[in-house]
Design brief:
This protein has about 50 residues and is mainly α. Helices cover about 80% and strands about 0% of the residues. The longest helix has 21 residues. Keywords: Membrane, Transmembrane, Transmembrane helix.
């Protein structure tokens, strides 16, 4: 049985990918901050399992 949160995880993954592409156009420091926020969001999803 699939966890009902899998849909939320896929949605966040897409949002994260879009944010990562946008952050690529900014300077390295902003890119690093964006990447950290993205990783934090992904870890939060995994912890909810």
């Amino acid at each position: 049985m699939r966890h009902p949160n899998i849909l939320g995880h896929q949605l966040r993954a897409r949002v994260c990918a879009a944010a990562r592409v946008q952050c690529y156009f900014f300077c390295c420091s902003v890119w690093c901050l964006c990447l950290r926020a993205c990783l934090y969001a992904v870890y939060s999803v995994f912890e909810s399992f």
